[in-house]
Amino acid sequence: MKKKILLIHTGGTISMHVSEDTGAVVPDTINPLTKEHEKLERLAAITEIEAFNLPSPHMTPEHMLKLRNIINDQLAHAAFDGVVITHGTDTLEETAYFLDLTTKFEAPIVMTGAMRSSNELGADGLYNLVAAIRVASDEDARGKGVLVVMNDEIHQAVNVTKTSTSSVSTFQSPQYGPIGLVTKMTIHFHHAPITREFVDVQSLTKRVAMLKVYAGMDGDLVDAVIDAGYDGLVLEGLGQGNVPPALVPSIQRMIQKRLPVVLVSRCFNGIAQGVYGYDGGGKQLEDMGVLFTTGLNGPKARLRLLIGLNQYQQPLEMSRFFQ
C-alpha cells in the first residue's frame, strides 16, 4: 500500500525559472512542481498544499510558525505517514531547525530545495523532491525529527547548514556529517539522534538581533541593539567563544538590563564554551551571565533564543534551555 505524504510548497528556487528576457531567476506564477503530480503519485499518495510562494530571504519566524501550525492542523485531521516541504535554500536550515524544536511527530518531516531553477540544465529540484518523498515514506525515518534531504544525503535539522552559494552539494553538517544516504535502491540511515526537544510555542512577540564578532570590534553595535529595543542578542564570537575587550562593558550593560546574550562560535566546527579567563574571554563572559550553546550556529541560536524568550520568563529557565 502506498504511503500517504503531505507535500507543502513554500517557494524558493525549486519553484522558480530563469527569465528569457533578463536571465534572472524569478518566481513562477504557477509552481512548476505541481505539473509533476502524476510522477510523484507513483511514489506515494500525495496531498499538495501551497503554504507560501516566497523567495527564502522573505521567510520570517512568523511564516515558520504558520507553517508549523499548518502541519499540526493537517496531521490532526488526516493520517499522513510523512510530510515533505519544498523551501528556498537560503533560509532552509532555519525553518528546519524551527520546526524541529516546535513539532513532535513520529511521522517524518523532510525538507528539500534546489540550487538550480526548474528550466535550467541539470535542474536538481524534481530529483531532490523525489528523494525527499522516498525518505518521508521510509519507516526508518520515523522518530528522527526534521530532516533535510539534498543531493542524495539526509541531514539533521540541528546540524545542517548551507556551505556554498551555488554548489548542488551545498548542504553539509560540519563535524557530524549526514545521518543517512539516498541510493537508487534504498534509504540508508547510519546514525540517529540521541535526543529530541519540543517547545510548544504559540506566538512570537520578541525581537532578537545577531552580530558577527570581528577583530577590533567596538561596543557601539551592542549598544545600538539595546537602544533599538531588542529583547536579546546572539554573538557569533571568536574561536571557542571570545570577544574583543571593547565589547565587554556593552555586554555587561545588556545583562544588567536582564536582556539575554547568547554566544556561539563563528567557526564551523567545535563547541563554544567558557575556557579563556582574559578580558573578553569566554570564562569571563560566562561568569558575567552570557549563555553558551552546544554547537549551534548563529542563525539557529537566534531562533532558539527567540523561542525561549516567548516561553521562559525566568533567567534560570532560560539558562537551562541553553544547556
Q: Describe the biggest sheet?
A: 8 strands, mixed
Query: If helices are DSSP runs of H or I spanning 4 or more residues, what is the number of helices?
Result: 9
Look at the structure and give the mean pLDDT: 94
Query: Any idea what the radius of gyration is?
Result: 21 Å
Adjacency order of strands in the biggest sheet: 4-1-5-6-7-8-11-12
Helix fraction by DSSP (H/I, runs of at least 4): 25-40%
**Overall strand count:** 16
Regions with little confidence, pLDDT below 50 for 5+ residues = none
CA-CA gap between termini: 43 Å
Give me the oligomer status: single chain
The arrangement of helices and strands along the chain is EEEHEHEHEHEEEEEEEHEHEHEHH
Which structural class best describes the helix and strand composition?
Answer: alpha/beta
| Percent range for β-strand residues | 15-25%
Active site: 13, 89
Protein name: asparaginase
InterPro entries: AsnASE_II, Asp/glu_Ase-like_sf, Asparaginase/glutaminase-like, Asparaginase/glutaminase_AS1, Asparaginase/glutaminase_AS2, Asparaginase_C, L-asparaginase_C, L-asparaginase_N
Pfam families: Asparaginase (PF00710), Asparaginase_C (PF17763)
